[in-house]
Amino acid sequence: MSKNVIEKRRSKPHIPSLGMNIYVCVRKRPIFEKEVKEGQIDCVSTANPVIRVGEPKFKVDGITKFIENHDHVFDNVFGSESTTEELYQHSVQPLLDQLFHNGIVTFFAYGQTGSGKTHTM
Asked: Number of structural domains, the chain?
């Protein structure tokens, strides 16, 4: 197993968004078939609530390659195998009662063009 991949057994259950003033969840998109054909690799792995990004680097000798991992922790992380329904159940559904009873709820989707924001929302 690559060192930049987080072991799935370290993953924790998703938490509901209800009761949080600010709730940040991340959904990782799968690597596209076109990217695989171009020889690109998936440098991002997930294990809720952590996303690990592998950054390719060279050692001081300028020849030896290595991967430096950067872990980022969020309220919830949904991997590429997660469904839209899972994201909805943990992030949106808990807020619907508040929304329909004069509450204020804002959903903000951020990401690269074509990464699936509209599809998810």
From this structure: 1
Give yes or no for residue 6 having a pLDDT over 80: no
Instruction: Provide the pLDDT for residue 95.
Output: 87
- Whole-number Cα distances in Å, 67 to 2, 3, 43, 60, 111: 10, 8, 9, 14, 24
Q: What is the pLDDT of residue 3?
A: 58
CB 52 within 8 A of CB 45: yes
* Domain interval for residue 101: 8-110
**pLDDT above 80 (res 120):** no
Q: What is the CATH number of the domain that holds 86?
A: 3.40.850.10
DSSP state of 79: -
* Prediction pTM value: 0.80
Only one residue has tokens 């929302």, namely 121
Pairwise CA distance, residues 77 & 74, whole Å: 7
Which amino acid is located at 88 in the chain?
Answer: Y
